[in-house]
Specification:
homodimer; about 375 residues; alpha/beta; Alpha-Beta Plaits; TIM Barrel; 2 domains; five-stranded mixed sheet; four-stranded parallel sheet
């Protein structure tokens, strides 16, 4: 009996056509030929098996489990994506809602380099939620970013990331800006005995990624912000494999997988399971009530997939973000608990006269919430 | 006046909120801060400009043009994706329907290595549509693939590609299978004086891509099949830059960008403009009437974006596929004209007793259609 990858789909089709629709997914994703060309041998060895296909009682989407021979994944991320959602992505009414990966698959993945426990050790924050902010707005001068970085670090903020829109002109521009911002953070840390960690954005041509990581490391940065769907998910895994560096993941360009709740996949699978497999220590996503439309249940599933059991991979931090404010902190503490990162960008910049005061106010409030 | 990238969006919102919705896109994609934090200087230098936002007369989605300073793209693909569709992908009712790239951007891209004219020269097919097929079904033995490859090549087929589901076990398995299939094609070409070109699938770990390309080239292959959204779009551009090799692009994992017609982007922009920018010579997509839901108008737009003017980039071939049959050939010839690739997989395998006879029948029919 070969190891199996079990994918669960919610299929939107008439109940009478469910068996046919489930079989169509199994065939499309493995052999992609007319039924007449499927020999008994290929049926037995290659075609995915429909484990169960029970019509929903309420007429809603039907839950179907499909079992793939894990060898068809090649034990790697690009083929896993292809296997469970490659071609059917181009159809409609097929939403990936669950994914069970066998130990033989998971054991090939290193996962987060730091994870929840490792990042807490590095930041010397044993139990409260972490506070993160972003260098913004795009277009501010490097002097302004140095000041923001210094204020946030002096006030004891945990994670400072670039806004994902920041666009340095080439590798040289990136290296110079990161060097200056990191120097501001390092100096502030030295002054206060703090441990603020800076994650510059890594988004650039494929042939420049390594150079940029080297530049960031050379400047003393210990983390990077990566947008896996702009760089390629497996390119991110390779970065995590090569460099012992904190990876914060940004969800840019992933949204069409979630916007239609009858198709695509759950945010938990993509921003949770897949990003964690690729080695992300922190996964940023839009908290309900901001400018984006994730539901509370979706964010809870995402947090569970980041922090729950996944082979021997370290748990990763959920980082709710997107229009968060001071007033939302109690809700966020209740919804996400301590092992989370509260990423507050504009809301922190707007809160007080200075970034230092805003950061202190947020940290005090967080301390109070979990004390 | 800096060079501009003009993106056109179809926004689904009440007409009375259109101006606000358009402004929200412009702010989200460039500075991502509350309006109160946008200084006049940043407004002038960084925030995208809403060029026009005219409510639709029929209540349908409203067409809006937004102009970005091209420098915000970093003149590269990952940032271009982030700039025109990164964060808004996570919202709803925002569909990218047009993209005008200035010469200063396009001139940084090499585009297809062969394009329509170059691939025609290589294949010695001056004017008719090209015939392509796939090595399938997944799970067949290498002997069966050798026979299929030999039959297709001896009959004069143009492009032979791997099924994108084929999953070799590691680099060694890939190298061995490609060597044998390419040998079958080379021998058939030598026997008939033909020019069939074989494109093995390149889908694997990021740290193995170069090794696989080298193995394919070493085996004598002159093309590869790439799934840009599994590998990362810019990783594909890098392959095209490094290797003078025919690139066929497969749309695996792209479909959520199209399934909801009020969000995402047009197939023409993604599988056309973006894949051509990355250097793909052929772009495979689902023809209407098969197992997938693209409309005739969408396929026409896609063909136009592959073959129409795009700086000095060579035109690329549209390759309609997905459940195509012999009976559909007249429609395909009418819809796509001569500069196209008819990709027939299962339909060709099913058509005749032998792949040789099927290939001959399809080629004869194609010749007749364009004579």
């Amino acid at each position: 009996m070969p190891d199996s990858i079990v994918a669960r789909y919610a299929l939107s089709c008439p109940a009478a056509e469910l068996a046919k629709a489930a079989r169509a997914v199994a065939v499309e994703q493995t052999v992609e030929v007319p039924e007449s060309l499927i020999t008994p041998d290929i049926e037995a060895r290659v075609v995915a098996k429909v484990l169960d296909a029970v019509p929903a009682k309420d007429g809603g989407p039907h839950q179907v489990a499909i079992s793939y021979d894990a060898a068809l994944s090649g034990w790697e991320l690009p083929r896993l994506l292809n296997l469970v959602y490659g071609n059917v992505s181009i159809q409609t009414g097929i939403r990936l809602v669950g994914l069970e990966l066998p130990a033989s698959f998971l054991s090939r993945f290193k996962g987060p380099n730091f994870g929840v426990a490792g990042l807490r050790r590095r930041l010397r924050v044993p139990r409260r939620p972490l506070l993160a902010t972003a260098l913004k707005p795009n277009g501010a001068s490097t002097e302004e970013f140095e000041r923001l970085a210094s204020d946030f670090a002096r006030a004891g903020g945990d994670l400072l990331k670039d806004d994902q829109n920041l666009c340095d002109q080439g590798l040289a521009g990136f290296a110079e800006r990161v060097r200056r911002v990191q120097a501001a953070v390092t100096e502030a840390n030295a002054r206060t005995g703090g441990h603020t960690l800076y994650c510059p954005i890594l988004c650039g041509p494929a042939d420049e990624l390594e150079g940029r990581v080297e530049a960031a490391l050379g400047a003393g940065a210990e983390g990077i912000l990566v947008p896996p769907f702009l760089l390629g998910l497996d390119s991110v895994r390779l970065l995590a494999k090569k460099h012992r560096i904190v990876l914060m993941a940004h969800p840019s360009f992933t949204g069409t997988f979630f916007s239609d709740r009858t198709h695509g996949m759950t945010p938990g699978l993509l921003l949770g399971t897949l990003f964690r497999l690729a080695g992300c220590d922190v996964s940023i996503f839009p908290n309900p009530g901001g400018r984006f439309g994730f539901s509370g249940a979706e964010c809870a599933e995402l947090s569970a997939r980041l922090r729950g059991p996944l082979g021997s991979l370290a748990p990763a931090f959920p980082a709710p973000a997107g229009g968060m404010t001071f007033a939302r902190l109690p809700d966020m503490a209740r919804d996400y608990g301590a092992d989370s990162v509260f990423l507050v960008g504009g809301g922190l910049l707007e809160h007080s006269k200075s970034v230092y005061d805003g950061t202190r106010a947020f940290l005090d409030a967080i301390d109070e919430l979990v004390s």
